Amino acid sequence: MEQIEDTQHNTYTQISKLLSNFKKAEKDRLTKGYIEARLECLEKYWELFSQQHNIIISSTSDFKASSRYFLEDVHDNCFENYLDLKTMMKDRLNHITESKQNQTQSGEEQQV
Length: 112
Hints:
Number of domains: 1
Number of helices: 5
Distance between the termini: 67 Å
Shape: elongated
Order of helices and strands: HHHHH
Number of strands: 0
């Protein structure tokens, strides 16, 4: 069980790093491809985290009472980071899509 708990902490750290790096990334670096690649990575991390969480919550109550995973509320903290990052990424992708649509419409209007 300790190994699974370590995996959870590592996955939580990776999600937190993705969030931190996304917030620090320069606007011109936030392309559609950049965001989609990181969103895919985020989803894989979250899938692993969720699977491991299901194993942990089925563990004995003695483990739950002494586990730093529960004491530090790792699941809820990670879930918040996951949602925050996914929201930011989707918002940015929507912004990129809207900008491209506006540019296309402006170009069409200039041709008329």
